[in-house]
Amino acid sequence: MSLRRSLSASVAGLALWVAGAGMAPAAPLADSSGPTRGAPAASDHSNGPCRHGDRGRLLDVDRVASHPTAADARAYFDSWVDFYQDFYNFPAELGVDIDYGFDSYKVTYCTVDARLDGRRRATPIVATGNLSVPRRSGRLDTVTYLHGTSVSFYDAPSNPNVFGEFEPRGESFDGPPASAVFAGAGFIFVAPDYPGLGDSTVPRHRYFDAQSEARSAADLLVASRLVLHRLRVKQSKDLFTFGFSQGGHAALALQRLLERRHVDVTATASVGGVYDVERWFLSMLDDKTTATLPLYVSYLLLAYDDMYDVYGSPSEVFRPPYADTAPGLFDMQHYFDDVLAGLPPTSRELLRRSYLDAVRKNPADPMRVRLRQNAVDRWHPEAPIRIYHSPDDEEVFYDDALVSVNRLRRRGGDITLRTVSGDHMNSWIQALPRAAAYFASLD
After folding, report:
1. 175 has a pLDDT exceeding 80
2. Strand, helix or coil for residue 146
3. Which domains does the chain have, with CATH numbers?
């Protein structure tokens, strides 16, 4: 820990890596004169397409929400809890301390898509994300937040709406509570939407593709530097990452990417995370009780075929009528509940018996090979990782998480496991303030 460089040097190192890889860093820093808070002006390239060499280039920024006081930020968090309370039955006391108001910005920037099968390199794309800045003086630590599964383009951190109709400003699940917890605790909050979500130009989200998850986050960190400079906000030396569910996978992928590019991460935390995607996929095929799992199985199959061409046609994998209906459900234009309602209750009813038998028995099946390539539990992390997981998690199984914890430990990682209670969603809402307190303790 004593050898860790300052965050400003680390993020500058990230920008230099971007340039060294043949990709342009963020635009030159603007004149710092102007108000301490308020929406900064957009860059000169707000209408231009992203090209090779543009990773991390800021295209546009809009202030999309403002919570001037700690009481306002607390009310924002409480409104989210109230909206979902009847469905998830959250505990009465969540342990969330919100000490600061904050402002949220939608950042539009350039990144790259997944490297699709048969392509020599990844295609430049437009992406969006959330930058939330606490109304706090001094140098601020940064938390990069990686969100969980979303099937709707608007359900992304750049959208601050707690509830709404199906349209660009409809309800957002992860963004409101996470930004309130971390920005309300005084952290700069940086959260990519991922390719295929928000205003991304990708038609379907690249579900569980480690490279595009990590790159979208790293490039947002670069693009956010210019916004923070224009706001006259100073970053401290500390950079944290936090991920929930799919975001646990993305958080470890991001830490791995940054550390391989010699950019220091102070610590990572995750809750309900998937680290061995192949193991999770096979576990879901055998599950008979959790109704949400066929959604994740379908999403993985469709997204991996988009990226890697892992089967011939949906009719080879899905039973009728799902071979015809499942692809349309994942067009990023449906509510999560509507997608779920369009699928059967188990993977056995979703998939052809011939496919189930073949994919279970054959480790060389193209789907399994690609899932294995996207594992994030087979490397040596330099920064400590704290993993929160519930033994009662019905979507990402505790025993699978233990396998990944032990793999990372065997590779020399400083991995701490903290048990939390409740189902998948309840473990997440409990872990958010615990992670904020953990990060603050390392300051």
Report:
1. yes
2. strand
3. 7-275+380-441 (3.40.50.1820), 277-373 (1.10.260.160)
